[in-house]
Design a protein that fits this description.
Blueprint lengths: L1 H57 L1 H27 L9 H29 L5 H30 L7 H28 L5 H21 L7
Helix pairs in contact: 1-2, 2-3, 2-6, 3-4, 4-5, 5-6
Length: 227
C-alpha cells in the first residue's frame, strides 16, 4: 500500500517535471524565434542605413531634398494632427493639398537653396574659429533668412492662389524673423561647430521639424483685414 502511494506521487512529480520541461522548451523556442526576428530587423535596418549612406554620398542634393522634404511634410502633418484631429470635435480630415504644398516648398525650393548655400559658405569660410563662426552666423541669419521667409510666404500664397501673394508676407515677416533669430542662431552655432559639412542640410532639416511647426502656427494666424 505504501509502495503504491509512493509510486503514485512519483508519477505525478514526473508528469509535472515533464510538463515544466515541455513549457520551458516552448518558451525557449519562442525566445529564439523572437531573437531571430529582432536580428533580422536589425540587419535590415543596417542594410537600409548603408544603402541610404551610399545614396547620400553619391547624390547629396537628392538625398538632402528627400530628407528635408520629408521633415517639412512631417512637421505640417504633426500640426494638422493636433489642430484637426485632437483639438477639433468632431475630428476633421487631414488637409492633403496643404501637405502637398509643404512638400513642394521643402523638397524642391528650400532644399536646393540650403544645399548650395552651405556648400558655398563652407568653401568661402572654412574652419571653426570663433570669428569664422560669427561670420557664418551673421551671414546665415541676416543674408539667407530674410529671402527664405519671403519665399515661404509668397510661395505658399501663390500655391494657395490668394488674391495678393504679398499681403501675408507684409503682415507676418517681422514677427517671424524675430522668432527665427531666437531659434536659429543657437541652432546654427551647433551646426557650424559640430556638424560635418555633408550633413549640414540634414541637421538643418531636423531643426526645421521644430521650426516649421512654428512657421505652421504663424501661417495659421489670421491676417488683419487689408481695409
Amino acid at each position: 500500500m505504501c509502495l503504491r502511494v509512493w509510486g503514485g506521487k512519483s508519477g505525478t512529480v514526473h508528469r509535472e517535471r515533464s510538463q515544466l520541461a515541455s513549457e520551458w522548451s516552448v518558451h525557449c523556442s519562442q525566445f529564439g524565434t523572437l531573437s531571430k526576428i529582432q536580428s533580422e530587423r536589425a540587419a535590415a535596418m543596417a542594410t537600409f542605413l548603408r544603402a541610404f549612406g551610399r545614396f547620400f554620398t553619391k547624390h547629396p542634393l537628392a538625398g538632402n531634398g528627400l530628407v528635408y522634404g520629408t521633415l517639412y511634410v512631417g512637421a505640417e502633418f504633426s500640426q494638422q494632427t493636433i489642430t484637426r484631429k485632437l483639438l477639433t470635435d468632431p475630428p476633421q480630415d487631414i488637409d492633403r493639398p496643404t501637405l502637398a504644398r509643404y512638400a513642394v516648398m521643402g523638397t524642391f525650393i528650400y532644399s536646393p537653396i540650403l544645399y548650395n548655400w552651405y556648400k558655398w559658405l563652407d568653401k568661402t569660410f572654412p574652419g571653426t574659429a570663433k570669428r569664422i563662426i560669427v561670420k557664418k552666423l551673421l551671414l546665415d541669419q541676416f543674408i539667407l533668412t530674410p529671402p527664405l521667409l519671403v519665399i515661404f510666404f509668397t510661395g505658399m500664397s501663390l500655391m494657395e492662389r490668394q488674391s495678393s501673394i504679398t499681403e501675408e508676407c507684409r503682415q507676418k515677416f517681422l514677427p517671424t524673423f524675430a522668432r527665427s533669430c531666437l531659434f536659429w542662431m543657437p541652432a546654427q552655432t551647433l551646426n557650424f561647430v559640430l556638424v560635418p559639412p555633408k550633413f549640414r542640410v540634414v541637421y538643418v532639416g531636423s531643426c526645421a521639424f521644430a521650426w516649421v511647426n512654428i512657421l505652421c502656427w504663424v501661417k495659421r494666424q489670421k491676417m488683419l483685414s487689408s481695409n
